[in-house]
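so my prof wants the structure for this chain in the tokens format not the other one, which i didnt know existed until like an hour ago. anyway here's the sequence
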Amino acid sequence: MLHSQQRATQEQLLVQRADALSLAVDREISAAMRVLEGLATSKYLDTGDLRQFHEQATRVLKAHGGWEPLVLTDVSRRQAVNTRFPFGAPLPRVNSPFIEEVFNTKRPVVSDLFWGTAVKTPLLAVGVPVIRAGEIRYTLAAGASPGFLAELRRSRSCPPVGSRPSSTGTRPS
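here's what i got, hopefully its the right format
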């Protein structure tokens, strides 16, 4: 009987930790979307001053941490800005179902985990459309590595191993 109780307690702890991690990831994705939606309103995108937009995006991403690089893709599917590289560096075309989904739906999208060819690591990305006069002009996307998600687990609202389950049955906040 003691073994069954211990197992039930451990299962409850695992569920709580999974719930807490899920909530932390959801919060981070929502925060990243808000940052990208804010950048999508940049006056520099209206004036075509991509150098200033690159500088603005770099500052904003440093302030919000975790999500980088920011990639601005134009309608011809070329990267116009990539904050991983200095402004003016040659940037490749984009061949990504995730970016295509943003262009096609004109809505924010969260990617599946994919292989980042420039960084040679798996990434999760969020992207938003940049719409002017009802037409999509660009997509803005930012990526996060699995290491970022692991850091979230260590530093955020996930209960540590061995913590006691909540007696109220509520989710951790």
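also thought this was worth mentioning. The domain at 7-155 is CATH 3.30.450.20 (Beta-Lactamase).
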